[in-house]
Predict the structure.
Amino acid sequence: MSGKKASEFSNEEEVIAEFDRLTRNAATVQRETLRRILDENAAVEYLQRHGLAGRTDPDTFRACVPLATHDDLEPYIVRVADGDTSPVLTAKPITSISLRFVLIRHRFQYCVLLLLSLALPIHVHRSSGTTQGKRKYLPFNDELFKLTMHVYRTSFAFRNRAFPVEGGGKALQFVYGSRQFTTKGGLTAATATTHLYRNEGYKAAVRDIQLPCCSPDEVVFVAADFAQSLYCHLLCGLLFAGEVRSVFAMFGHNLVLAFQTLERVWEELCHDIRHGALSPARVTEPALRRAVSALLAPPNPALADEVARRCAEAGLRDWRGVVPALWPNARYVHTIVTGSMEHYVRKIRHYAGGLPLVAMDYGASEGMVGANVEPEVPPESATFAVVPDIAYFEFIPLKTNDGGGAACTDTGTSYNTEADPVGLTKVTVGEHYEVVMTTFAGLYRYRLGDVVKVAGFYNSTPKLKFVSRGAIGPTLCINVDKNTELDVKLAVDGAAEILAARNTSLEVVDYTSHADVSSDPGHYVVFWELSGEADDDVLQRCCDELDRRFVDAGYVSSRKTRVIRPLELRVLRRGAFQKVLHHYLALGASANQFKFPRCVARSNSGVLQVLSDNAVKIFFSTAYD
Ligand code: AMP
């Protein structure tokens, strides 16, 4: 074990004191942050074009520069990627391009966003109704790297104060880099997390603020195939079992996937440890084999016996508490379990036994937004304190459209986003907002598309509760009804109680939804993968309950007047969502930043096909009969 003491980590108390100072003066810090961004970039084409003429005050900035979506900024970003070295968006050069994988339809506005790993070339088709892959470019530069590390350092200081990692050790991290390529203009393009992990300063920075990963770099970067990488992460985690002090994945479903995989492959892992040799069937990539084989040798039958005994015992408990059983010195499990990841909280807690589950910070490829500075708070109530010096933030007040007005498109919009944005310190507790950011990497008044609710304040900076993607994103919508991915989650949680009441070990492993208008009138379809068998009468009741749980006035009245047909529940065979994941990975999505869409768009025909192919039972609601 490395002998690192908690106090040796980048002086937590100083970091916390600095965060307190920044947040006590959040309004001033925001003005100063905007001034720095605009001063530094006064001569860039985008700002010149909007007539800012070097002015840096918030009022002029808002009066001159319009709110922008990615579509508005894309032509500028593409020019940079293609090699335009003039100051297009930033005065200092943009050094890299972050990639998102986008399934997009062109007749409609909504995109399902996923980061791209470039495993395969993506073809962009222009007709609607087909699944289309497109690389979405975002600027990345050294400033973004430094500011991301600033947020990580802040949340680590609070985390380490709550759960000190005394004596150092390692982190079991299920992280995956994407492949990178060079754009026409010679910039490196990869996922944002890959830029982070590959940055020269990353290792030094994390040495100061967190524990080193059990796996060698090859496991993170080399794997052509994510399953090989995952197997090696598990193996390395077991080899360093006594040293593991925290368990991490960027998004919660990757942790669930890791432990589900452990359930299946633990005997093979033990075999490899016992013989000091890596399974030729599981891991074929030469560089990966070399790196992990070096760690595996020599044979270690004692460790293999111990791991096998603990896995066999965990298996008898349905794998409850397998994390502390295998990694007894782990202090906490750390991952994104808010928003669309909240569904996995239950399963992660099941694996984590009594270990605290700490919600990971809130950010995006565009830039970080907030740090979790209250790590003891359970993920269901977790909030993110906006870090006021990392970007200039505005918030568009959102009012739910209650059916009066806008006709429903394929995309739907549950929120009225017409109101004027307010500044960081002007938000109101309890209200919903869409996040808008102006960054050091060339995004000006950029609509992130996420919906947040202000839960309170940390000094004078707001604490945000993540609500959903979807101010300008996916919703279920047929005519005057509108339901967000949060509404779908609440409906699923409510209906799943019927399952749990019958059989406590039966649960919804994963879910998604779709507004089917292929016949008139249209109807909602909810897809469920279950952990076991359920009786048809129970599933029928779940189906009825799902229908009832969509309480949006437009939906209820449409159901009563039969302009929306009964909700359909399709129960999928086990492993169906793995197939959906693999469908996305094959198209080029990144394993590290993958998020299942909770509402599948009509144009996303590939995913709908995978879901439909795996349906084993179908029920129609009788709730409004
Ligand atoms: P990406 O650019 O792939 O990192 O995805 C960024 C998006 O992931 C954000 O815009 C959010 O929608 C979602 N996200 C990031 N962090 C969190 C979080 N802590 N809780 C919930 N959703 C998050």
About this structure: Residues 115, 336, 338-339, 360, 362-365, 448, 450, 466, 469, 593 surround adenosine monophosphate (CB under 6 Å). The chain is about 35% helix and 20% strand.
